[in-house]
Amino acid sequence: MLAAPGGLGVAVEDVVIHDPEDPPDAHPGDLVLVIGARGRSAAGAIRAAGRSGAAAVAIKNGSAVVNVAADAGIALIEVGHEARWEQVEALARGVVDAARAGGEADSGEVLGDLFALAQTIATLTGGLVSIEDTASRVLAYSRAGDEVDELRRLSILGREGPERYLAMLREWGVYQRLRAGEGIVRIEERPDLGIRRRIAAGIHAGSQALGTIWVQEGAHPLTESAEVALLGASRALAPQLIRHRTLPSPELRLREDLLAGLLDGRLDAESVADDIGADPGKPAMVLAFSLPRDRAASDRQLRRAELVHLITVHTAAYRRSALVSVIGGRVYALLPDLPEHAEPPILALAKEIVGTAQRHLDVRVRAALGGVVPRLSDAAASRGDADRVLATMARGHGTADVASLADVRAEVLLSEVLAFLGEQPRIRDPRLTELVAHDAEHGGILVPAVLAYLDAFGDVRRAARELNIHPNTVRYRVRRAAEVSGIDLADPAQRVLAQLLLRL
Asked: Using an 8 Å Cβ cutoff, are 121 and 229 in contact?
């Protein structure tokens, strides 16, 4: 701590990461970690945090800006040069999250979304509520009085259900009914076992179980609307548990932010390399992975989170400093510090990841290899290659689930040429535009014949087989198209242009 103008009693409400090149986004009570600047270059970020009412800023080489922090009225924490930002964030956020989950506000309301929801459910049902995940770990619970039974007491103290009670619930078929789908499961009182009457409901995202809400009856009977309230709560809690399962740890979250910043060009390679332990002067490559969009959003979100974990494990085994992040619905993996001739083993790695994902996630995953770039600062170019390959695969070019730019280069380049022509109407041949318009009004048979003829390199019989018509019909339609448009298909330049523009 280098400066504390407000004393040491200032409350920290949240931990946020700030890059000086981004607009200020701090709020009162934030601890701002300034990861993209050191020393005097962080002065602007310190002043902005002070104006927002943030609690403190943390930077490296902070001794040079003590006066700036004092003038801004904000506490200044210096982070050691050797410390990694993901460790600093994990430490700070762990303390804040623990306080938020276990502390109480002045009003007595338990902090944290799940704890607040548990208390709301308790009010509506008149019982004592606990929320558990599928492994019977207690995620949140409502406040309780003296009427807590032994099962609830041991579950909360141990943060998970005691095994002897879990075994009984399994034997009674309770968990089987909870996993089966929506509905209320009733467990009658068993004084001999220390169990009071309770009701429970499973929390689901589609067919996937996410957890359970338990409502124990206390000193007073449950309300008449308790079961209706519990059913509604089980539906409302699904997004919360999806978020609980899919949010990365603080360490992973920072590493994801670093990769996103590098691939978007917001962070320089040297800053990222310093924090992930990579050599910025060595070759690197980006892998991109995509999931189909034909599933419900909640199911796709869960599958993507599981895919991120799977990719993280595989890529870390290949390169210790690998980074994985989700950007725009795709999952990207950065592999730094690559040796020469790295592509063959990375292709095998991508195939292994895709195969494992499709076996365990029951969903088709596609992977694209960006090119190997000579240094970490060129990682955005490798990501661009990977994106181009995935886009080409999505259009149905190629049947493989893993491809590199070399595998689909012709299709990628063709699509980019067509995209350019689509954006530049002034360089199109108006004769072909007229042909397309004429054909649309007269049955749409000439353009397909010309394209099939050109794709077949002038082989009329092959074009006829593709169109399932007689070769003489192909000859007639091609000749008629030339008459309507005035295009000379014997001229190589006009022939190439016709093929491109008619594809467009």
From this structure: yes
